[in-house]
Amino acid sequence: MKVLGERRTLRKLRYLISVFNAFAARVGKTSLIMSLVSEEFPEEVPPRAEEITIPADVTPERVPTHIVDYSGKDYTIPLFRWIPLINERTDKDSRLPLILVGNKSDLVEYSSMETILPIMNQYTEIETCVECSAKNLKNISELFYYAQKAVLHPTGPLYCPEEKEMKPACIKALTRIFRISDQDNDGTLNDAELNFFQRICFNTPLAPQALEDVKNVVRKNLSDGVADNGLTLKGFLFLHTLFIQRGRHETTWTVLRRFGYDDDLELTPEYLFPPLKIPPDCTTELNHHAYLFLQSIFDKHDLDRDCALSPDELKDLFKVFPYMPWGPDVNNTVCTNERGWITYQGFLSQWTLTTYLDVQRCLEYLGYLGYSILAEQESQASAITVTRDKKIDLQKKQTQRNVFRCNVVGMKGCGKSGVLQALLGRNLIRQRQIRAEHKSYYAINTVYVYGQEKYLLLHDVSDSEFLTDAETICDAVCLVYDVSNPKSFEYCARIFKQHFMDSRIPCLVVAAKSDLHEVRQEYSISPAEFCKKHKMPPPQAFTCNTVDVPSKDIFVKLTTMAMYPHARLRCMCACNRCTFCICQNFLNSDLLQSVKNKLFTAVLNRLRPYIDELGAMLLADEESSIMQQVHAVNSVEDSIFMESSLGPRLLEDRHVTQADLKSSTFWLRASFGATVFAVLGFAMYKALLKQR
User: Fold this and answer.
1) Three-class SS of residue 481?
2) How far apart are CA 481 and CA 512, in angstroms?
3) Is the separation of the CB atoms in 511 and 542 below 8 Å?
4) Where do the CATH 3.40.50.300 domains begin and end in the chain?
5) Residue 226: DSSP 8-state
């Protein structure tokens, strides 16, 4: 960006100086160049000076300047005809600024400014006028400084001298800057916001007295320029108009360029689309800092604090955009409240979706919101996390990603849209309120898997006979068929065999519309047998025809399968190949059951004499105690059993004692059995690994 800017500046400065020297002979243009270079007046002046480049480090604006002398014909054209002639040779879109220089001021004792001012007022292309003397070295450096300044900080794009006000493009750009800087969205810039603005634009804060002086100037000239001790939009625009009128164009240009604007007051591609390298098989996500920034943007515009953005609030949020980026389909892509307004979770979900599907557009949108300025980052690329290659996740059997894509496949009318809307918590009644032209083929929401919040992105792919390569790129596949349509499952089976049977993408079959009568599918085998044959989980019954929010079980399962494609869910697995199935088969094997039974019998027989002896001792003690109190018991037996229920308590005491004994025996057996089982299990596991 800096290199391009310097090249553009070189071209403009080169043309500027050439034009400046083009239409007059023997006025001292060559002497001016030579006096600048040698810092002394040349006694002998050549017909034409050589081209020179002034290095950036010796110029006030820190840009290189290329100076070209022009030796043309001897034009005898009056001054008031120079400008139209120059304009005829200038591209209308380039808007090259001009400066008028009155040389040889050492030969006269008066100023020619009074003669020049009417010409400057007539031709707005003239940025400034300066009198100088190559012989006395008067204003030589200033001349070329003004030339640089006229190129770097031109007045033309900002201000209309005839109307004595800023041009619409400049007002539009400064209005966007004001809205971005108004971080609490109260319509004014308070002292903290003004100081932040000053610091990010000029690298220095304003002293409290300086802030008051600025506001006093605005108050003096504009009745509604200051409100609640804060600078209003009108006051902000007035200040920049004042800067331009007083010749301090660089102040306004510094602000504009800090917020990404070029010489034509358009946001530069370098600002909107910073470089971001994304290797193959990697995805893009927003990082923690980006979510915090978006949270602040949401809070800034949620004026009624209902955790949802009304249409007016959403429109106000996007006023810093040159166009409305979200259409009505977004309301059917993310979560909304009962009134159809995008909620806080839906707001973040839509940004997550944009980042995943089109990261360049996300960078553009963050640029419009001023992310790099408000977050004080080099560019909005710092808001993006590029995930590692999916192959590495499979090798390490773990992932650091937070967004997972699931393609929803099924024939037309099978209930795919219902699955998408169910992810957003909408039952069939709410789904019927969606207009056909506002239908969305995406849905995204958060799902909790093992206590972790993840984003599940559902994509309703086409129902054509074949899927494109792009439609097969995903983390999981949801094959949807209608239980009431006998021809529905055949499409899912065909698509699975064509695209996913030999892939490592986990698939889940969903039996949609399970509230309807289930019919036999016109396929060679049933959906359950098909899933078992291809080592998939059994079909999952699903319906969105519910009174409340539809069940989210299938979404948790899909997200879990996408997170752990190398493993299988415990409640679904029947592959007989994964670690879980091997361990289950080993635990249920006849050999292990036989060893377990023999060990249990041996331990029990070993401990039985001790158990019997201990039981006999406890029983004898209890019987002796009862015999000693038999008369007392007999005399009050009825009252005891009727009033205090002592009899059951005695039986309970006896029962507790025996239970404690059995519990101790059980834990002894369990500890010993667990130890033996662990040793045998580890040995068997090592043997299986060695065989594989």
Assistant:
1) strand
2) 6
3) yes
4) 19-153, 399-586
5) E
Q: Which residue is listed with tokens 């995805």?
A: 283
Q: Which pLDDT tens digit goes with each residue over 629-662?
A: 444 444 434 443 343 333 433 333 434 444 444 4
Report helix, strand or coil for 24. coil
Identify residue 157 by its one-letter amino acid code: P
The whole-number average pLDDT for the span 333-356 is 96
Q: Please give the single-letter amino acid code of residue 200.
A: I
Q: Which fold has domain 399-586?
A: Rossmann fold (3.40.50)
Q: Over the stretch 245-277, which tens digit does the pLDDT of each residue have?
A: 888 889 999 999 999 999 899 999 999 999 999
CA-atom Rg of the chain in angstroms: 41
Cross-strand bridge partners of residue 133:
138
CATH of 19-153, one of 3.30.2130.10, 1.10.10.10, 2.130.10.10, 3.40.50.300: 3.40.50.300
Question: Residues 229, 232, 234, 240: is their CA dihedral positive or negative?
Answer: positive
pTM for the model: 0.74
Give the type of residue at 10. L
CA 152 to CA 11: how far, in whole Å? 12
CATH superfamily of 271-387: EF-hand (1.10.238.10)
Q: Give the β-pairing of 507-512 and 476-482.
A: parallel
Q: What is the C-alpha separation between 594 and 609, in angstroms, rounded?
A: 24
C-alpha to C-alpha distance for 408 and 481, rounded to whole angstroms: 11
Residue written as token pair 């009417």: 118
- Give the Å distances, CA to CA, from 664 to 661, 667, 671: 5, 5, 11
Q: How far apart are CA 39 and CA 581, in angstroms?
A: 89
Superfamily of domain 162-266: EF-hand (1.10.238.10)
Find where tokens 């098909």 sit: 530
Positions of CATH 1.10.238.10 in the chain: 162-266, 271-387
Distance, CA of 107 to CA of 139 (rounded, Å): 15
Distance (Å, whole) CA 618 – CA 419:
65
Three-state SS sequence of 97-157: CEEEEECCHHHCCCCCHHHHHHHHHHCCCEEEEEECECCCCECHHHHHHHHHHHHHCCCCC
Total residues belonging to the chain: 692
